[in-house]
Amino acid sequence: MKKLLSAAIVAILSLSVLAIAACDLPGMNKEGNESVEISMEQSKLKMETLGKTEGYELTISFTTSEGDSGNLTIGAKGEVIWGSDDEGNGFAVKQADSGIYTYVYENGEYTFNEKLSEEEEKQYIENYTKAYSEWLYYANEFNGMLKKGSDVTVAGRTCHSYTFNMGDLGVLGNIVKDLAPDVNVDYKVCVDVELGITMKLDVVAAAEGETNALSCEITSFKTGNAVTAPSLPEPTEEPAGEE
What we know:
Blueprint: H1 2-13, H2 17-22, H3 40-52, E1 56-64, E2 69-77, E3 80-85, E4 90-96, E5 99-106, E6 109-116, H4 118-133, E7 147-148, E8 152-154, E9 157-164, H5 171-179, E10 184-192, E11 198-207, E12 210-223
Antiparallel strand pairs: 1-2, 1-12, 2-3, 3-4, 4-5, 5-6, 7-9, 8-9, 9-10, 10-11, 11-12
């Protein structure tokens, strides 16, 4: 689904140079050229700060037109970051003064994996958190081409709502349709007013003769005392299972 969405996005954005001229063309829809108010970089920093102070734990539900569905949990509090899925698989990272330790979550239990160097830690966290939370920043995919709607509430949090559709681009949309008639995206997103993360996403993407749909929604958003970091075993000299 991400590959298909990316293909549609690339096809549209590759023609974005036309938007400069289209902004002054008769019939260009001025309402369809807004951006989210908090950038991806700012949003990631806000989430990192929240994790190190109050803490957070999010439950994300997703479904696809291919029949996939499930829930992911991601959280951070103090020195611990964690994530897990419906099948009981996951990870945790503990960033202590004595070092950075990784853990594997299987069958409802955490086991020590390895101690990382600072550089290894950056890559490890990037890889795992990307797998669990990449979609939190999908709202930025169509910056500059969004149409803002009414504020809504998702998981108890106030969100700005935005849509993107080829029809909102007016003349530019018609040009893209003429040049790439098989490309279309119908995109609805709700963005947390305070943190800038995507709280709800519904997208239907068509490209290269295929059409797929994806729906994601944060159904639970805990912070502060409602969040408890997982209890992790003490690191050993060697990971469990190694001799």
